[in-house]
Amino acid sequence: MVAIKIIRGIKKYRDAAMIEIGMLEQLGKYDESRSSCVQIRNWFDYRNHICIVFERLGPSLYDFLRKNNYRSFPIALVREVAKQLLECIAFMHELRLIHTDLKPENILLVSPEYIKVPDYKVSSRSPKEGSYYKRLPKSSAIKVIDFGSTTYDQQDQSYVVSTRHYRAPEVILGLGWSYPCDIWSVGCILVELCTGEALFQTHENLEHLAMMERVFGPLPYHMLKRADRQSEKYIRKGRLNWPEGCTSRESMKAVMKLPRLQNLVMQNVDQSAGDLIDLLQGLLKYDPADRHTAQEALSHPFFTEGFERRR
């Protein structure tokens, strides 16, 4: 059994598919250790549709969360997933490739199998019946998919990348981006796995930046000062134009209800909360130059000490 990704027979999609095939073949060529990047088996052209053949995998982390009524994953599972995800990103970055679209929809569990365990924390979004159980994947093995937006690192890349909720501040402010934009996305994904819900649920730039300030504190002046022409309108007198520039009461409420990062983690995580907060603070640094690299993140105590404690 295999999975086949079928691309619509329209020129721009075909062109993107050929780029993705090139990226997948490149990754496959150097991937002796079989990192957590999905493996291309083959591809063919069928009636003007490019068809890419992959190994068959389980559901995405997003689909798993959704079917689990947006309940969080246990910290041991978050640790395993984080490690594989960072290993995949470290491998890509070594090849000078940037994924640019990391999100729970693009991370698949290798196996669809799960077990049900009692769960008495009824989540706000879970229906009443059958909500005293939650699903746990039997295996924590994952694969990263969708290399259609993957790009080589080049100077001054400033077009908008990443799906909104996982988009780094330098992308929103038009400051140019590189490898660290993937790292920011990983940080957002890990918070979501711990809480069950996307960290920044927004569709608008100013609100998104205000949410970041709510969770991590003020954006650095040197980044706001360099914002491009598009983003200048979000800034006044060297700081974010919030709440003055706020468009609605709903928007204000959405920002105000967000807790600080430390509180958010501690509300949802019992063990290793301190290590996890410290790791997330390194992955979610505003300034891309200060953000952990994937390789640095892998040697963080969250991965090493957590293992010692479990033994």
Automatic annotation (TrEMBL):
Catalyzed chemical reaction(s): L-tyrosyl-[protein] + ATP = O-phospho-L-tyrosyl-[protein] + ADP + H(+); L-threonyl-[protein] + ATP = O-phospho-L-threonyl-[protein] + ADP + H(+); L-seryl-[protein] + ATP = O-phospho-L-seryl-[protein] + ADP + H(+)
GO annotations of cellular component type: nucleus
BP GO terms, sorted: regulation of RNA splicing
Keyword Kinase in annotation: yes
Pfam families: Pkinase (PF00069)
Protein kinase domain mapped to chain residues: 1-303
Chain segments annotated as coiled-coil in the UniProt record: none
InterPro entries in alphabetical order: CLK_kinases, Kinase-like_dom_sf, Prot_kinase_dom, Ser/Thr_kinase_AS
A molecular-function term among this protein's GO annotations: protein serine/threonine kinase activity
EC number: 2.7.12.1
CDD domains: PKc_CLK (cd14134)
This protein's UniProt keywords: ATP-binding, Kinase, Nucleotide-binding, Serine/threonine-protein kinase, Transferase
Record-linked PANTHER family: SERINE/THREONINE-PROTEIN KINASE DOA-RELATED, SERINE_THREONINE-PROTEIN KINASE AFC2
Family: Belongs to the protein kinase superfamily. CMGC Ser/Thr protein kinase family. Lammer subfamily.
Protein name: dual-specificity kinase
Organism encoding this protein: Setaria italica (Foxtail millet)
Lineage of the species this protein comes from: Eukaryota, Viridiplantae, Streptophyta, Embryophyta, Tracheophyta
